[in-house]
Amino acid sequence: MPKVIVIGGGLAGLAAASALAEAGFEVDVFEARPFLGGRATSYPLNSSSDESETIDNCQHVLLRCCVNLLDFYRRLGVRDRVKFYREFYFIEPGGRISVLKSGSLPAPLHFTGSFLRMPFLGLADKAGIARALMALRRERKRRADLDRISMLDWLRQKRQTPRAIDRFWRQVLVSAVNEDLDRMAASHGFQVFWLGFLANAEGYQMGVPAVPLRELYAADAWRRLGNVRMRFRTPVEALGSAGVTAGGGLHTADYYICALPFERLESLGLDAPKFEHSPITGVHLWFDREVTTLPHATLLDRTMQWMFNKQGGRYLQLVVSASRDLTPLGRNEIIEMAIGDLRLYFPRVAGAKLEKAHVVKELRATFSAAPGTGPLRPGTRTAIPNLFLAGDWTRSGWPATMEGAVRSGYIAAEAVAEAAGRPARFLLPDIA
Ligand SMILES: Cc1cc2nc3c(=O)[nH]c(=O)nc-3n(C[C@H](O)[C@H](O)[C@H](O)COP(=O)(O)OP(=O)(O)OC[C@H]3O[C@@H](n4cnc5c(N)ncnc54)[C@H](O)[C@@H]3O)c2cc1C
Fold this sequence. Notes:
30% of the residues lie in helices and 23% in strands.
């Protein structure tokens, strides 16, 4: 069977490896770190203790419309380890909660009942949002400038109220695309709302892994797939027509898939666009008692954007996407800010003792999905006929997300299969 070397054991590389292995290829994955998952992974909180609990670098969530990611989990036999929620909770300072959920009407009207009842928006905000959603349905295939204008430009064209922009559009999109509305190409905002909210009644459901991310890609899963060999702690140092140099040796294969972040390509002598990064900050807080019973909530009007209840309302994880404002702040300042914000939503925080806290600043979380970047994302093929690219920054059809990474891996795997004369389809179409 043809042999493939995959460079990088993040979701893009792993998706390619799983698909090719199932199709019978022999696959070697070279990963620099001692574990899999790349930017979507977990590690021991205290690396010097074997007993230490494992935490995710940051809460990762998906929507049910992430069909390729779910297909990848299926391949690994871990699809049932993702728990899906049908309700979104918007919570205001003071604690008032609005629930968004699908009702009995068919798509795209399935949110009508809960949307009309949500108290955090006024009538004028809601009427404007409804108008804009209808325009989005009409314009998504017709407008040629959506990659060039920002989502904020588009929302202003549609005369959205400041409250609708801040509390609805920004709240949903900044975390979905990891970029501010004025720096996000409108095409990404369109895609999230079309696939997640309009195209069908289930696409919006939010999936939260019920196990640490790393367990999703554990070694057992790979044994089921057969022909995949993981080479941990083996950073690839050079890549040329003769093969890859790693771990002090030269390794050859029939095909190569480079699934590294774009900023790593130059060191291997490959061209890549120089995108700007957009950071994400995760704040982990452990309290001595339960401070909330909500499983998750999006937090309105403050710095912290999302709360995930990781363990009995005592261990909470907060997430701030496009978190440039937090970059210059120190750990303690961020923790204080997080606790200050939380008190406004969950009064029980005031009486609780913080037992420990951990802050993760991922400065290179994703590339910035700015207007104009779409056409710069490369496809999978390169000037070298047996070398293919994958990664969330390549032209996957999605923003930099786990779904985008898996899609890029499947696209690269299809290109390898075709080059090997064994064409195969791995990429699933979007559900809309
Ligand atoms: C904090 C944070 C929160 C996020 N939240 C979400 C979310 O909620 N939902 C969502 O869908 N997405 C989220 N994302 C985005 C998502 O994690 C990424 O889009 C996706 O994981 C990228 O996968 P990838 O395989 O393209 O790249 P990576 O995960 O970066 O994989 C690249 C791999 O290559 C390895 N590597 C690097 N150099 C070498 C070398 N020389 N040789 C061999 N191996 C090498 C790295 O160790 C890594 O394992 C988040 C990202 C971050 C950082």
